[in-house]
Amino acid sequence: MKAVVYKGPREVAVEEVPEPEIEHPNDIVIDITTTCICGSDLHMYEGRTAAEEGLVFGHENMGIVSEVGDAVSTLEEGDRVVLPFNVSCGFCQNCENGYTGFCTNVNPGFAGGAYGYVAMGPYQGGQAEKLRVPYADHNALKLPPGDEHEDSFSLLADIFPTGWHGTRLANLRPGESIVVFGAGPVGLMSAYSAKLQGASEIYVVDRVPSRLELAEDHCDATPINFDEGDPVEQVIDEHGGEVDKGVDAVGYQALDPEETDKGDDYAYDPAKENPAVVINSLIRAVRPTGELGIPGLYVPEDPGAPDDMAAQGRLGIDFGKLFEKGQALGTGQCNVKSYNRELRDMIIEGRADPSWVVSHRVSLDEAPEMYERFDNREDEDEAITKVLLEP
Ligand code: NAD
Ligand code: ZN
Questions:
Q1: Residue 30 near residue 81 (C-beta atoms within 8 A)
Q2: Is 106 in the pocket of ligand 1 (CB under 6 A)?
Q3: Are strands 360-363 and 243-248 parallel, antiparallel or unpaired?
Q4: Which of 12, 149, 297, 372 has a CB 3.0–4.6 Å from the CB of 251, allowing a cystine?
Q5: Residue that terminates a domain, selected from 313, 331, 349
Q6: Domain that holds residue 319
Q7: Do residues 273 and 363 share a domain?
Q8: By mean pLDDT, which of 16-30, 45-59, 187-201, 304-318 is the weakest?
Q9: ipTM
C-alpha cells in the first residue's frame, strides 16, 4: 500500500510499504478515508527530533473498519470510526482515570503512545491506505455512516479535542477572558472552544495574517500581531488589564518576537527561536491566581541527543513571577478520549462546526508538496491551516 514515509529533514515521500495486519485479537484494521497533517508532524519533518528514516507519519486518522480481530466485541466491518491520536489500553490506572494520553501499557518508558510519532511507541502512522488499531473497542469512536461531516469528524482525532483541552487545562469558566498564543490549527481550535464555552473576550496572538483573520472571523477573537510590538502589552492595553486565563498553543518552536525578521520571508530558523517566550508571556498576561493551559508541545532534556537538541527541554521560565502571581498551570498531551464523544455529538447536533479550519483536502500523493507548504504556515497570502489527505 502507499504511505507517507519520512526520508530526512524536510523530506517525505509517498512509497509502497507492507500492509498492516491483525497482530492481536483486540486489533482492527481500517481503510483510511481521511488523515490530517499536524503541526506536531512538522517537528519531525523539520528535523528537530530523532525520528528515523522510514517512519510512516500520521496520527490523525479516520476510516472504515475492514478487518476485525476475534476478541473485538463492539465493532464490525464497515463501521465508520475516528481514532484518538493517543494509543491507549483502557485499563491501566491512568486510562481508568481518563488520562489516556499517559497510558502506561502501550509504550513502556515514555508517558503515552501515538500512531506514527517518534518516541511514542511502535505504532505505524495512518498517512497511508490502511492502519492497524490496537485495543480497538477502547480506542475507536464510532461515527454515523455515510460521509457527512467528514472534515469536522477528522478533527476529532486531535486538534478539536486538543484545542478544547487547552481551555480545560486553564479551567476556563463562562464569562472569563482568555488569551491564546498561536493561531495554528491547535490555537484556532482553542479559541473556538473558548467561544463555544462562553468566554467573554478572546485574544489570539500570532504573526501570520491569514491565521489571525480566521481567529477574528470564526472565534470572535481580537487578533494580536506580535510583529507589531510586545503582544502582552497589546493584550493588556486592549483588555484594560490582565486576562483571566491563557493557553500556549505554540510549543517549544516559539519564535522570539525580539529576534524575528520582520520581513515577509517566513521561515523557521532556530536562531530566532526562544522556547520560553510564550510561557513567560502568559505569566505576564494572565492575572494573579489565573490559570495557564499548555497543550503546545515541549520535549524533555535528552543528554543523548545531538548538541542542538539536547537542551531543548531546559527552558528559562520565570518561575518566580508565576509563584508571585499564584498561578496554576496544566500541561501535556491531550486525553482525546475524554472529549471526543461529546465533541462528536456537538458536531452531529449542529452546535459545533470546526471544519472552517480546514484549508486543503488533497490526495495522499500530494503529501510531499503539502508538507512543504504547511511548514511555511501560509504562502502567497493563502492560508494553509489544516491539510487533510485522502488516500
Ligand atoms: P503550528 O506550528 O501550525 O502553529 C503554531 C503557531 O504559533 C504558528 O502559526 C506560529 O506562527 C505561531 N507562533 C510562533 N511563535 C509564536 C509566538 N512567540 N507567539 C505567538 N505565536 C507564535 O502548529 P499547531 O498544529 O497549531 O500545533 C501547535 C502546537 O501544539 C505544536 O507544538 C504541536 O506539537 C502541539 N500539539 C500538542 C498536542 C497535545 O496533545 N498537547 C496535540 C497536537 C499538537
Ligand atoms: Zn496532531
A1: yes
A2: no
A3: unpaired
A4: 297
A5: 331
A6: 162-331
A7: no
A8: 304-318
A9: 0.99
